[in-house]
Fold:
Amino acid sequence: MFKQLTIKQKRWAERYLQSGNASQSALEVYDTNSRNTAKLIGYKNRRLKHVQAYLEALLDQAGLSDEKIAQHLKTVIEAGVKAQATTSDALRSLELVLKLKDRYPSQKVESVSKVLSIDVNATHDELLKQFHQVTEENRQMLAEISKTQNPSKSNI
Structure:
């Protein structure tokens, strides 16, 4: 099932689950000393479906399936936590697991803005030409947005 993963992607995923830091894991596994490159590698790896599936499988093997998390959360809510850990500690742990499973909503919001200027005194043909130009620019902008939200599936 995980044959399409590279050795580095597997090692990155295992290290990522230990540290919780995608960039640091990339610095340790990949041949780079650049924090920017490591950040990009971590970002891409987190979005690749086969890497996400591997992370999910590793968490499930560790007993952190969705059902187990829900069961623990229910126990914490109903019974509270013993003296060794606080409720806050338990909830933070569950939050981390949910983030690792990519079940936690991203807090990043991206926005794109564009200034549109149209010559209202233009002829019908000139307005039509401007309309087609704006339409093409919008199509290109949407393609770029789509690329950033769904990075290519190239193996890093």
About this structure: The chain has two domains: 7-100, 110-156.
